[in-house]
Every structure is written in C-alpha cells, then in structure tokens.
Amino acid sequence: MMTHSTQNREKSAGKGTTGDKKDDKCPICLSDFTNKMQLKCYHAFCKQCLQNAVKALGPICPICKDVFGVMKGNQPDGKITCNKYQSSLPGFPGCGYICITYDIPSGKQTENHPKPGQYYGGTVRQAFLPDNKEGNEVLLLLKKAFDQKLIFTVGASRTTGADNMVTWNDIHHKTSISGGPECYGYPDENYLSRVKEELKAKGIQ
After folding, report:
1. Whether pLDDT at 12 is above 60
2. Tell me, what DSSP letter sits at residue 61?
3. Sorting pLDDT into bands at 50, 70 and 90, what band is 23?
4. pTM (two decimals)
5. Mean pLDDT, the chain, as a whole number?
6. Which of 8, 47, 113, 142 is most exposed by smallest CB count within 10 Å?
7. Percent of the chain with pLDDT strictly greater than 70
C-alpha cells in the first residue's frame, strides 16, 4: 500500500496542511486518527478504516477514487482469444476489426464469490474493436483487465435474470458490430475514449 508521511505531505508544494481542524479527523469514522495512514493522493485515514475500505472497494481512495494498488476481481478462470478481419466497423472506414472471444467455463464458486460452494454457469462472449491504433491500445488494456479478473463476475444475468451465472462486470464492451449504442454496437464515436476511462478508474492505463 503506497503511503506518505505527514512530513512529506507538508514538504510537497501545494499539498501542505490547511490548518482546518477537519484535517485532524478521519473522513471515514469522523474521529481522531488511529494509526494514521496517508495515500499518494494525500488523503489520510485510520489504518483500520482504510483496510475496511480496501476490502469493500479495492485499493481505491474513498475520497478521490485514485487507485493506489493493483485491483483484482473475482472473475473465474478462463481464456481470451483475438482474431482480426478485413471488413470495417460502422464509423471506422479504412481499417478492419478485431473480434475478442472470452471463454469462461462453468465451475464452483470460491470464497471470493457470492455463494461459495455453489456451481455457476459459464459463458462465451464476443466483443468488437476497430483494428486501428486506438483499438489496439484498448485491446491491450482489456487483456490486462482480463488478467486481473476484472472483465466478468458471478451473479445474476442482466439479460435472463438467472442467478449464479458468469456475467459482465462494469467495463463496457461492444458485443454487436452494428446497431449503434442502443444495440451495444457501432457506430459510436466516443466508445473507445469512454472504455479507456472505465479502465483507468480501475488503475489500468
């Protein structure tokens, strides 16, 4: 966990204490600090309060949402493969497209899942990116997110409502080639920038 001492904070230009008495209170428990810990974003918390927040939210500052560690999800084991095609996606003429295939087999939930010991249904999903510079950048970021088990989770299916299923987490994918945003497809000129922001919020950039 990356932290800074109070002394380092005061030495940092523009990052010194403000003199406000609120700076002497933990923003989580609203009490005096106990074993004060300060993050690289300069927000400080009681050690136990921060540990509880990390358990609930991951290594994210509860105040500014800055990521200070490697986020790990509860995505079950699986594999990712990619293929490239010459035809173009709507809105991206002049380049081909990339088809990503995620394959997550069925299995038994672990202690990291909502119902340990129960079986979950697997899934095979496809997603599409333009085969240009930015599309390939997003592909590398998605592969990193997959390795950190952040693409999928186990829960209720958003389409069928069935429980104990592998389902998308909160990193949006284009699962259709066409149809626009309403059909999770293209054209959507802002999609690549949006998904990069979603990945950045999880410390992947």
Report:
1. no
2. -
3. low
4. 0.76
5. 88
6. 8
7. 89
Report the 10 Å Cβ neighbour count for 12: 10
- For residue 42 the two structure tokens come to 């300069």
pLDDT in tens, 87-99: 999 999 999 999 9
Token match 């497809």: residue? 185
The tokens describing 161, both together, are 């409502």
CATH architecture of 6-57: 2-Layer Sandwich (3.30)
Query: What residues does CATH 3.30.40.10 cover in the chain?
Result: 6-57
d(CA 88, CA 117) in angstroms, rounded, equals 44
Cα 105 to Cα 160: distance, rounded to the nearest angstrom: 18
Structure-token match 């409502």, residue found: 161
What residues does CATH 3.30.390.130 cover in the chain?
A: 79-200
Per-residue exposure over 121-135, b if at least 16 CB sit within 10 Å of its own CB, e if not: bebebebbbbbbeeb
Residues whose CB falls within 8 Å of the CB of residue 22, separated by 6 or more in sequence, listed in order:
none
H-state helical runs in 100-160:
133-147
H or E element in which residue 84 lies: strand 79-85
| Domain range 79-200, CATH class | alpha beta
Which residue from 139, 145, 140 is spatially nearest to 99, judged by alpha carbons? Answer: 139
Nearest C-alpha neighbor of 118 from the set 146, 154, 147, 79:
154
